[in-house]
Amino acid sequence: MREGSGFPEIKAIVVDIDGTLTDMSRLISLEAVAAMRQMPIPVILCSGNVICFVRAAAKLLGASNTMIGENGGVVLHGFDAKAIVLADIEECRRGKELLLKEFPELESLDETYRKSELAFRRGIDLEKARSIIAEDYPGLEIVDTRFALHLKHRNVNKATGMRKIAEILGMSTQNFAAMGDSENDLPMLKEAGIAIAVGNATPEVKAAADYVCQKSYGEGAAEGFEWLKRQL
């Protein structure tokens, strides 16, 4: 793990919400929010959830007005700005119709508000679903965030959203730190200048991190914020 001067200059941190700022019941940690508000750099929320949810969370929690939704498929720069959509949802809709033939019980989540990908409630045979999609739609993939299943474009992820934000802000992605817990966070952790994993993160996420928090969920996020402040 690199320390101190071994890191690039960090100008902002991109943070996952579910499982990082929350517990598994999706309750926001007040400890994490308090630590987040003490950060001397902008905190950019990044989620697999729809952008209107991320916008509301950013406003209520006091995060940056720049944010990433739908696993990098949608970016918002300014609370009242028009969302920037980085992927076409139509192929995902066709993939959903294919999945429904095998899994008629498939339950969509927030489909009315989604712009670049689709999300489903967990519970179907994930490997079988992935095999079905891979055969007919090789450009798509199904990602399990441990909160939902996301049918998305393979070449669009949280790092894609981070790169778009970096372009808008005139920064390099190496100027971002990133913190997360699940497989959908891996691309942004690998893209960022500093990667932080909360204690409940998957083994793959921990392996990609420069710092692994001892604590889990929101308490881990608070620890991660405090550790990052010491590196700035």
Main features:
Hypothetical Protein Ta0175, Chain: A, domain 2, metal-binding, single chain, Phosphoglycolate phosphatase, five-stranded parallel beta sheet, hydrolase, 8 helices, 2 domains, 19% strand, Rossmann fold, alpha/beta, 232 residues, HAD_sf, three-stranded antiparallel beta sheet, 11 strands
Q: Can you describe this structure?
A:
The mean pLDDT is 96. Helix 1 packs parallel to helix 8 (217-231) and helix 3 crosses helix 4 (126-136). The protein is an alpha/beta fold and 232 residues long. The protein folds into two domains: 13-85 and 156-230, Rossmann fold (3-Layer(aba) Sandwich); 89-153, Alpha-Beta Complex (Hypothetical Protein Ta0175, Chain: A, domain 2), CATH 3.90.1070.10. Helix 6 links the parallel strand 9 and strand 10. A five-stranded parallel sheet has the order 2-1-9-10-11, with helices on both faces. Strands 3-4-5 form a three-stranded antiparallel sheet, sandwiched between helices. Strands 6-8-7 form a three-stranded antiparallel sheet. The relative contact order is 0.19. The protein is globular, with a radius of gyration of 17 Å. The longest helix is centred in the C-terminal third of the chain and has 15 residues, at 217-231. Helices cover 35% and strands 19% of the residues. This is Phosphoglycolate phosphatase. Its EC number is 3.1.3.18.
